[in-house]
C-alpha cells in the first residue's frame, strides 16, 4: 500500500533514510577516533599539580617547623609568684587541675598561671580602682566608703579568674553536650562494624572534629590513654572527669562494664544514644517553654507604652481640638 504516493517518491525516501542511517552509524563508530578525549591529559595535569602543591607545602612546613613539646612550661614570673606565696599546696589535691582540665587547660602550666592570676588580678584591680575613685572621680563621700569600693573591686578581681574558668567550663560543656549524641551514633556504627574501641574512638574523633573540636580533642586523648595507660578503666574515667557531663559518664560506665564483664556494647550504646538525643530534645523544649515568661518584661517595658501611645494619642488630639 502506497496510499496514493508515487512509487518513485517512495524509492527516493527509502534511499534518503538508508543514507541517513548509514551516515549516523558511521559517525557513531568513528566518533571516538574523531573527537580526542582530554580526560586522561587533564587527570595527569591534576595529579602533577597536586604533587607540586604537596612538595611546596612540605617544604614550607619543614622551613617553619619548630621543636614541639607536649608540655608547656609556665612563665618564670608566674612560677616565682607561686613559689614566693607558697601557693603550690593548693594544687596538691588535684581538684584545681581537674577544674582546669574541664575548661580545656591541661598540664602544670595552666595551674601555675591560674594561681598567679589570683594574686596579680586583685592587686591590679585595687590599683585601678583606687586611681579611679580617688583621682579621676574625686568622690565627696567619706573615706570609709571609698575604701569599701576599692576593696569590693579587689575582691571581684580575686574571684575574676575563677569566674572566667567557670564560664569557660559552661561553654565547653554546652558545645560537647550538643555534639555528643552524633558522636555516640558514630561510635555505635563503628563498634557494630567490628572495630575495636580504640579504632572506633579514633575514627569518631576524626569525623566529629569539623562539628566539635573540643569533643574531638577529648576522644583523641582517650585513644592515646587507652594505648599507653596500663589500666584501661582509668582512661575511661578520665574522659568522664575531663568533661563532667552525665551523658558521657553513663557511656563511660557502660564501657567499663563491657571491659570488665565482656558484655555486648552495641545494645548499651544504642540505648544511651537514644537517651542522649531525648535529653537534648527535652532541653530544647525546656528553653522554648521558658521563652514566653522571659518575653513578658520586654513586652511590658517596650511594646505596651508604644501601643498605648498609638491608641490614646488620637483621642487626646481630638479632645484638645474640641476645647
UniProtKB/TrEMBL annotation:
GO cellular component, as recorded: plasma membrane
Subcellular location: Cell membrane
Transmembrane segments: 12-35, 115-137, 143-165, 295-321
Presence of the UniProt keyword Cell membrane in the record: yes
Lineage: superkingdom: Bacteria
Sections of the chain in a coiled coil: none
The UniProt record lists the keyword Metal-binding: no
Bilayer topology: Multi-pass membrane protein
Alphabetical UniProt keywords: Cell membrane, Membrane, Transmembrane, Transmembrane helix
Domain Type II secretion system protein GspF: 184-312
Pfam families: T2SSF
The protein's name in its UniProt record: Type II secretion system protein
The species this protein was found in: Microvirga aerophila
Taxonomy of the source species: Bacteria, Pseudomonadati, Pseudomonadota, Alphaproteobacteria, Hyphomicrobiales
Amino acid at each position: 500500500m502506497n496510499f496514493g504516493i508515487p512509487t518513485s517518491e517512495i524509492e527516493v525516501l527509502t534511499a534518503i533514510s538508508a543514507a541517513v542511517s548509514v551516515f549516523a552509524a558511521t559517525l557513531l563508530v568513528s566518533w571516538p577516533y574523531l573527537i580526542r578525549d582530554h580526560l586522561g591529559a587533564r587527570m595527569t595535569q591534576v595529579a602533577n599539580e597536586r604533587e607540586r602543591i604537596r612538595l611546596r607545602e612540605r617544604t614550607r612546613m619543614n622551613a617553619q617547623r619548630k621543636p614541639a613539646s607536649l608540655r608547656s612550661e609556665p612563665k618564670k614570673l608566674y612560677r616565682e609568684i607561686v613559689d614566693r606565696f607558697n601557693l603550690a599546696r593548693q594544687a596538691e589535691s588535684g581538684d584545681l587541675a581537674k577544674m582546669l582540665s574541664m575548661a580545656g587547660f591541661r598540664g602544670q602550666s595552666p595551674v601555675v598561671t591560674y594561681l598567679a592570676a589570683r594574686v596579680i588580678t586583685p592587686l591590679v584591680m585595687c590599683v585601678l580602682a583606687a586611681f579611679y575613685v580617688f583621682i579621676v572621680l574625686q568622690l565627696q563621700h567619706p573615706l570609709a566608703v571609698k575604701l569599701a569600693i576599692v576593696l569590693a573591686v579587689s575582691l571581684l578581681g580575686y574571684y575574676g579568674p575563677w569566674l572566667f574558668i567557670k564560664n569557660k567550663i559552661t561553654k565547653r560543656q554546652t558545645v560537647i553536650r550538643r555534639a555528643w549524641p552524633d558522636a555516640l551514633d558514630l561510635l555505635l556504627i563503628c563498634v557494630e562494624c567490628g572495630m575495636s574501641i580504640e579504632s572506633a574512638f579514633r575514627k569518631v574523633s576524626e569525623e566529629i572534629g569539623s562539628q566539635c573540636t573540643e569533643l574531638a580533642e577529648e576522644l583523641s586523648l582517650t585513644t592515646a590513654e587507652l594505648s599507653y595507660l596500663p589500666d584501661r578503666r582509668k582512661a575511661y574515667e578520665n574522659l568522664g572527669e575531663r568533661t563532667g557531663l552525665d551523658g558521657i559518664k553513663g557511656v563511660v560506665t557502660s564501657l567499663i562494664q563491657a571491659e570488665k564483664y565482656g558484655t555486648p556494647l552495641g545494645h548499651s550504646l544504642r540505648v544511651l544514644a537514644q537517651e542522649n538525643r531525648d535529653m537534648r530534645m527535652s532541653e530544647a523544649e525546656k528553653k522554648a517553654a521558658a521563652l514566653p515568661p522571659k518575653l513578658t518584661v520586654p513586652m511590658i517595658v517596650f511594646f505596651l507604652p508604644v501601643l498605648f501611645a498609638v491608641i490614646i494619642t488620637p483621642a487626646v488630639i481630638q479632645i484638645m481640638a474640641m476645647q
